[in-house]
Amino acid sequence: MNAWIALDIGGANLKAADGRGFATVRPFALWRHPAELPKAIADLLAAAPPANRVAVTMTGELADCFATKAEGVAAIVRAVQAAVHAAHVKQVKAEGRQAAASGVSIRVYLTDGSWATPEEAIANPLRAAASNWHALARFSGRFVPQGVGLLIDIGSTTCDVIPLRDGRVVALGRTDPERLACGELIYTGVQRSPICGIVGRLGWPSRNATCAVAQEVFATTWDAYLLLGDLPEEPDSLHTADGRPATREYAHDRFARMICADRTMVSRVDALGMAREVAEAQCHQVAAAIAMVVERSAERPTGVVVSGAGEFLARRALARSGIDAPVTSLGQVLGSEISRAATAHALAVLAREAGN
Length: 356
Known about the structure:
The chain has helices spanning 37-46, 69-95, 118-123, 125-128, 132-140, 176-181, 221-228, 248-257, 268-295, 311-321, 330-334, 336-340, 342-354, and strands at 4-9, 13-17, 23-27, 53-58, 105-109, 115-116, 148-154, 159-165, 168-169, 185-186, 201-204, 209-212, 303-307, 327-329. By secondary structure, the chain is of the alpha/beta class. Helix 7 packs across helix 8 and helix 9 packs across helix 10 (311-321). It has a 6-stranded mixed β-sheet, with helices on both faces. Strands 7, 8, 9, 10, 13 and 14 form a 6-stranded mixed β-sheet that branches. Strands 11-12 form a two-stranded antiparallel ribbon. Helices cover 40% and strands 18% of the residues. It has 13 helices and 14 strands.
């Protein structure tokens, strides 16, 4: 057997995929429960098809439960090793065999597109940290094999704007700070970004007024896009600002609290108006980053790849930027389930192609 399973270990979500049709995403608040990461990964592996090779990428090293990125990278790599070992022991016991070395190979993807052993990744933490963007961009290059391309990946928390040329990644930045500085990373997403981080004031239509917003995480962009219908309701999900369901009804409540009010003071029409303002402001942020990245190239993009839960926002930002190049949607190419774990899927495909 030479089968891969790829893991993308984030600060808020864990993703796994085999590059052949299996993909899953599970919420996991790493910053709150770092000691539980090995078990969470083991549970993820247990739900995946059998594999004897594990590819790893990560962004969770940025979680504030770690003092440094080096500490975070080491903790994540060790957690993967522990999970792989636990899965092996469980299988051995189930089959009634004697324990031996698992025979499972672990490789960590680096920001230059190379692969490392767990020990090498721990020794080179800044090359292992936040490497998933490169894996997705490298995979996406096959959809724009010639000329100047662009990947716009918008997830729950962040947005990547990655330049491509002839199918290759030509990003200026490598680390998160470098990428923030050059516009290739915008720390804004369609679910977890606090409203107060996007706008300072919101209109209050029924009062014909505007109001400063509370500097508190009463609501997030998820609420804006729930109200606007860009994202579907998830009544069973409680990963919202107040821990109540991800529905339009509760999104209305959360928006009202952004101006220290409640639903008796802020109507649904008011909340919808506020949501539109937030969506407009976020679109402006993404469009500005696209313009910054595109301006560094002597040519306009000849093809664009959009990915993530925020594909709809990527398309709006492209339109605002005046870019009319053909757009490839990974959501359509891969299907909705796999595209939610597109970084892990891309990593699994790259690992299989590399033949590590």
